[in-house]
Amino acid sequence: MSGIDTEFEHEQVEVFRDTATGATGVVAIHSTALGPAMGGLRLAAYSGLTAALTDALRLARAMTLKNSAAGLDLGGGKAVLLDDGGWADADARAARMHAVGAVIEQLGGRYVTAEDVGTTPEDMVGIAGATRHVAGQPVERGGRGDPSPWTARTVTGAISAGARQRLGADSLVGVRVGVLGVGHVGRHVVALLREQGAEVLLADLDTPRAQDVAERYGAHALPVAGFLTSEMDVLAPCALGEAIHEEHIAELRCKVIAGAANNPLAGPDTAHALAGAGVLYVPDFLANCGGIIHVGAEVLGFDDAEVERRIDVAVAHTAGVLAQAAATGAVPQDVAVAEARARIAAASA
Ligand SMILES: NC(=O)c1ccc[n+]([C@@H]2O[C@H](COP(=O)([O-])OP(=O)(O)OC[C@H]3O[C@@H](n4cnc5c(N)ncnc54)[C@H](O)[C@@H]3O)[C@@H](O)[C@H]2O)c1
């Protein structure tokens, strides 16, 4: 795997190209120790196959931790598709999604997909034409639909837990939160934060979207450039991965980082560097697990009440990890990873 910028410890990786439609992508199964590997299907403009493969491997590994930490009997996996411009036409896209479904079907249920950045509940309908190993179809088709509002619930819970732990804030009233990225999840985070009385700054590369969300919820839209280092109590990265590099840390003015983005830290030591600078980093895979609880319910047979209960448990769990880390002087990321791995090891024993 030389040239691939990630640790390779995965059970199975499929790189595919459907010659009839041109659909090209990667399915990475990191672990099935706890159950079928589950994680969304991402469509992105990767610079090439190596970049797509690296992303799939990283995201699949993060799903193993996320599903374990959320107490789900699901392993970790992820699929990515290369956006070559051929997904724009609706009919071509549906045919490509059907081809992706055929690849997933060949995996025999070891991997279950759902929507992620760049894909939609409607795309899952195309996939379902070729496999039953798919969740998150539209509600009118019997699926649970877009998981984003549930992701926003655990993200907002993680922001509250972080603010309580680091700032001693009993509520979010008057806490200043900066939300970077106001797409599917970020806009719901903004709405929930405003409902709870937080002051919200936001930024998005899509400037009209940022303006619209700011006006709708009474938040302040700022330019993306310089946003990370704006004056704020909590930074909520809700765009794409790797937003925070070590060279940003000295300039950060926030005390807490908690958001929806998967893998928002650029390097393996960034969580420690943040802790050294007095910034509490709430592990992304704890903060953003609401979505997989919501769509994983289709695979695990949870009803709505069980989903609600598990969302509340996940938020309480995040607060518990932060408290345990504070009590022992550990970094929350290390506590959460060790706990998630221990659950997998126990299942594998
Ligand atoms: N959708 C879910 O339920 C879910 C669940 C878990 C994790 N996540 C993660 O949360 C993040 C957001 O997911 P989403 O579904 O809201 O995606 P999305 O594509 O709907 O929204 C992302 C937003 O970020 C903006 N953006 C992209 N790059 C940016 C940058 N460099 N600076 C500022 N803005 C930028 C985009 O314009 C867009 O508005 C992703 O990292 C995703 O993997 C999502």
TrEMBL record:
The keyword NAD applies. Residues 145-347 form the Glutamate/phenylalanine/leucine/valine/L-tryptophan dehydrogenase C-terminal domain. Keywords: NAD, Oxidoreductase. Pfam families: ELFV_dehydrog, ELFV_dehydrog_N. It comes from the Bacteria. SMART domains: ELFV_dehydrog. InterPro entries: Aminoacid_DH-like_N_sf, Glu/Leu/Phe/Val/Trp_DH, Glu/Leu/Phe/Val/Trp_DH_C, Glu/Leu/Phe/Val/Trp_DH_dimer, Glu/Phe/Leu/Val/Trp_DH_bac/arc, NAD(P)-bd_dom_sf. Belongs to the Glu/Leu/Phe/Val dehydrogenases family. This is Leucine dehydrogenase.
